[in-house]
């Protein structure tokens, strides 16, 4: 059989994290619910402990360090991301917190994109300063000009492309070059594109984070995060996140494995449908602007074309100013676009998007909505929105 790295992504999605010969011939890696593993005798314990800490081996000694189910999910994600190894986490936010806390210490300086995920922002604004880490936000389209913000104590640059709610696309290769030239690391949230549509390690990222709750699980039924690192950083990150007690449950990791098998076909459908809805919205008189990285007028579109392999189903829409009652009438009567906080599942979602920014002009003047286009027939989704606009007008 060819090595996994020689396969294309769709083949990796089908076969990575599976070894039927090791599990009695089962096609799917079984669900291991295990807290305790036993070893043969006292004499072998030191060897077991050493093997459990070796990043090139997979010896299980206690459930908090993983089991065959979580290991299979980690192996599959690492193969897709192009990193050395992945670490499964209980949520996307846990992946962000675990990775960042593993890489910084008191006295360090961290640069964070101004359009990062809202709960990540709270981590950077509230938690890190309490540990003695100084945090500074930068405009998401700064690119190589971030060099002017680098200091001797800058340890980490945190990126998210495209950014939450406003969907600016950052110049990840430029951020990586500047960070590395100053002895810093680049950490990126790759949830929106997934490793199918953006290859973080090809573009210089040192640590990639995903809220696997979204597209990797894909069915809105599990909380899951994942950190993927370079070989040089793996042991450091693994030690810290396990000391913090971070590990996902076996059931959620198994659901992540199940979701991976159909990620390719789902993402391609999300992409087609979301682009159709986004283009329809650009012609609506009620719409001021559509924030979709694949559309030419979205900030960073040229970078999207250069670096990304596709677009997912999540994007933003800025409406012309309307009374709150009209906006609520539009939203509350929708049948196919439910109002919910997550995204990445098979269903369509919509919500009023709120955000905080440090830099003037970063947020639009009109109502900002975030849409996730699911797997429904695009004609039905457009008809649902069309009826919503009729309610808004009246």
TrEMBL record:
Name of this protein: Cystathionine beta-lyase
Pathway listed: Amino-acid biosynthesis; L-methionine biosynthesis via de novo pathway; L-homocysteine from L-cystathionine: step 1/1
Coiled-coil annotated spans: none
NCBIfam families membership: cysta_beta_ly_B (TIGR01324)
InterPro entries recorded: Cys/Met-Metab_PyrdxlP-dep_enz (IPR000277), Cys_b_lyase_bac (IPR006233), Cys_met_metab_PP (IPR054542), PyrdxlP-dep_Trfase (IPR015424), PyrdxlP-dep_Trfase_major (IPR015421), PyrdxlP-dep_Trfase_small (IPR015422)
Cofactor dependency: pyridoxal 5'-phosphate
Source species taxonomy: Bacteria, Pseudomonadati, Pseudomonadota, Gammaproteobacteria, Pseudomonadales
UniProt-listed Enzyme Commission number(s): 4.4.1.13
Protein's organism: Pseudomonas ulcerans
Top EC group: lyase
Gene Ontology MF terms in the entry: cysteine-S-conjugate beta-lyase activity
């Amino acid at each position: 059989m060819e090595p996994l790295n020689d396969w294309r992504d769709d083949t990796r999605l089908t076969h990575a994290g599976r070894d039927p010969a090791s599990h009695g011939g089962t096609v799917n890696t079984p669900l291991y619910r295990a807290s305790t593993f036993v070893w043969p005798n006292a004499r072998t314990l030191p060897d077991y402990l050493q093997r459990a800490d070796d990043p090139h081996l997979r010896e299980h000694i206690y459930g908090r360090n993983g089991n065959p189910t979580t290991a299979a999910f980690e192996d599959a994600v690492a193969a897709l991301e192009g990193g050395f190894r992945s670490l499964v986490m209980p949520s996307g936010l846990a992946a962000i917190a675990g990775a960042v806390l593993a890489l910084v210490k008191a006295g360090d300086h961290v640069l964070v994109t101004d359009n990062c995920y809202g709960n990540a922002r709270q981590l950077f604004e509230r938690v890190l300063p309490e540990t003695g880490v100084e945090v500074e936000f930068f405009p998401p389209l700064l690119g190589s000009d971030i060099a002017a913000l680098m200091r001797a104590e800058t340890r980490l640059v945190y990126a998210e492309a495209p950014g939450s709610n406003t969907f600016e696309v950052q110049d990840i290769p430029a951020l990586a070059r500047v960070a590395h030239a100053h002895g810093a690391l680049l950490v990126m949230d790759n949830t929106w594109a997934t490793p199918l549509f953006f290859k973080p390690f090809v573009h210089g990222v040192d640590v990639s984070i995903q809220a696997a709750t979204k597209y990797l699980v894909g069915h809105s039924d599990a909380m899951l995060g994942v950190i993927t690192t370079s070989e040089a950083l793996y042991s450091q990150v693994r030690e810290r996140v396990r000391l913090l007690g971070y590990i996902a449950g076996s059931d959620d990791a198994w659901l992540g494995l199940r979701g991976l098998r159909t990620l390719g076909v789902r993402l391609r459908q999300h992409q087609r449908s979301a682009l159709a809805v986004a283009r329809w919205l650009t012609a609506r008189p009620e719409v001021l602007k559509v924030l979709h990285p694949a559309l030419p007028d979205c900030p960073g579109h040229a970078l999207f074309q250069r670096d990304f392999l596709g677009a997912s189903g999540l994007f933003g829409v800025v409406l012309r100013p309307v009374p709150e009652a009209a906006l609520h009438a539009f939203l509350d009567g929708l049948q196919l676009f439910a109002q919910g906080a997550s995204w990445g599942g098979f269903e369509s979602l919509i919500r009023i998007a709120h955000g905080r920014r440090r830099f003037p002009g970063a947020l639009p003047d009109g109502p900002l909505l975030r849409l996730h286009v699911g797997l429904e027939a695009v004609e039905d989704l457009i008809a649902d929105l069309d009826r919503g606009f009729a309610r808004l007008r009246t």
